[in-house]
Amino acid sequence: MTHKLLLGSITLAICASYAPAALAQAAYPDKTIRLVVPFSAGGALDVVGRILAQKLTESLGKQVVVDNRVGAGGNIGAEYVAKAAPDGYTLLMSSVTTMAINMNLTPKPPYDFERDYAPVSLNAAAPLTLMTHPALPAKSVKEFIAIAKARPGQLNYFSSGVGTGTHLAAVIFDQMAGVKTMHVPYKGAGQGVTDLLSGQMQFAFSTIQLALPHVQSGRLRMLGIGSLKRYPRLPELPAIAETVKGYEAVQLYGVVAPRGTPPQIVSKLAGELRTITAGADVQEKFLSQGIVPAPSTPEEFSRSIKQNIAQFAKVIKTLDLKVE
C-alpha cells in the first residue's frame, strides 16, 4: 500500500468514526429535553423556566419539560445537571444562588460553576422586593428599620433556603441598615409565603412576581425594591437604595448545560433562547411578572458568571457569612 493510499484509508476511518456523532448533533434535538429548575414550582425562576420551556418546545419541535429538583439551597438540582450526560438533553435553569452564592457560601460545594457547566444564555433579571405583613406598622423602608432597631432579633423572615438569594438579601440588608432580624429557612418560597400571610413571619425579600398578588389584595405590603433604580412598571415603589445607600438585591436567571456539551448544541440553544427572550410576547410576560428580560450570548453569560462569583466572594468574606 502506498503512503497516499494509506493516508486515504486513515482519513476515511477517522471520518467514519466521527460520522455518528456529527449526525446526532445535526439532528438535535430528536427527543425530550429536560430543563431542571432547582427550586420549587411557583417562584420566579420556575416561571422563567416554564415560559422558556414552552417557547423552546415550539421552536425546536421537541418537548422541553421542566423538572423541579429542590433542596440544599438549589445544590441538589444543580449537582444533578453537572453530572448529567453532556448531550444537550439535560439543562439547568440557574439563578445567582446556584451560579455564584453557593460557590462561596457552601463549605464543600458539590460542583464548580465555572468548571462543570457550559454557559448557554442569560435570560432574565429579577429585582427582589422587601415585603411585610400589614400587622407590622411600617409603611416605608425607613420606618421598617426603626422598628427593627427597636425590636432586635424579634422580626422573623423566611427565605427559600440557607444561602439563597433571598437569604443573602436579608443578611446584607441587616448589615447595611444596622439591624438584627431572625432567619427561618424553607425548602421553597410557597410555605414561607403562607406563613408570612398568617403573620408567623413578619417580612421577607421576594421577587415582585411572588409578592404582587398578595400586595394587590391588601394582605402584604411592599416597602422597597432591590434594584438601584425604580422598576418601570412600579414607579411609585422606591428603591431600597434610596434609604440604604448602595443596597442592591437582584436575581439573575440563565440556562447552562453540563460541561462538555458539543459547541454546536450550545450555539443552537443559545440562538433559540436569544430569539425567544427578545420576542415582544416573552418580554411582556416577563415584565408583567416583575422580571427584566436580559438576552445574551454564551460568552456574555460566562463573563457575568465570573463577575458574580467574584462579587459574592467579596461580600461573603467581608460580612463573614457562614452556612447555618
Fold and architecture overview:
- There is one protein chain.
- The chain has 324 residues and is an alpha/beta fold.
- It folds into two domains: 30-124 and 252-319, D-Maltodextrin-Binding Protein, domain 2; 127-242, Periplasmic binding protein-like II (D-Maltodextrin-Binding Protein, domain 2), CATH 3.40.190.
- It contains twelve helices and ten strands.
- The chain has helices at 3-26, 44-60, 75-82, 96-105, 113-116, 141-150, 165-177, 189-198, 208-216, 263-278, 280-288, 298-319; strands at 33-37, 64-68, 90-95, 117-132, 156-159, 182-185, 203-207, 221-225, 250-258, 292-293.
- Strands 1, 2, 3, 4, 5, 6, 7, 8, 9 and 10 form a ten-stranded mixed sheet that branches.
- Helix 2 links the parallel strand 1 (33-37) and strand 2 (64-68).
- It is globular, with a radius of gyration of 22 Å.
- Residues 1-24 have low confidence and may be disordered.
